[in-house]
């Protein structure tokens, strides 16, 4: 226990120092992070490990943060924790165990109110037990874009931060945002009807890939390519990446993208 208290104190000190250097406002009170699509490939390989690293570095405090996984898969809390643990290899066992105890799991559909009512109860029970008077709710959609509208309607209807408490509700949408310009604009319109712009955060992780970044530099920093690489001369751009494993349950997502024979 002493070791755990010491590591927590060290992480808190590290976070406070960084926040001061960056002149960040310090928010305190309940923070609930809901990962929708918690049993999926993206969540277990990327989202939960990223949350762990934030926890390890002191950005997420065990006394203030509550992480809830939500998906259709029938899992227990320990079942989800076991899946996540498999992707935290090489990490401190003490830190991993402490982090996993922050995680709960709720199973439910993405388009019916029953599951989101259970989700809201899980969040509300934690907020009431914390007695901080605050309610900060962050929803991370590790889901295919096709279910964004229905999920966001459920969040808006059942899971918004109560006005009686100080706080906010924010939604992060992950993955390529739509299949093309038309579908991206349609998604933006649908989400814009439910949330204010400062409540929405869009992350397209492929725009951050080094290959794409290098292409941008190669074009705009090269006088030879700058006048040639444009819509008049380039028919299409294909980005191909290879992995040493199969689609592993992701076929439904990949079927909606790319060229089909």
From TrEMBL:
Q: Name one Pfam family in it.
A: G6PD_N
Q: What class of enzyme is it?
A: oxidoreductase
* Any GO BP: glucose metabolic process
Q: What is the lineage of its organism?
A: Eukaryota, Viridiplantae, Streptophyta, Embryophyta, Tracheophyta
InterPro entries, alphabetized: G6P_DH (IPR001282), G6P_DH_AS (IPR019796), G6P_DH_C (IPR022675), G6P_DH_NAD-bd (IPR022674), NAD(P)-bd_dom_sf (IPR036291)
Task: Write out the similarity annotation.
Answer: Belongs to the glucose-6-phosphate dehydrogenase family.
Give the signal peptide range. Answer: none
Name under which the protein is recorded: glucose-6-phosphate dehydrogenase (NADP(+))
Glucose-6-phosphate dehydrogenase NAD-binding domain sequence ranges:
34-214
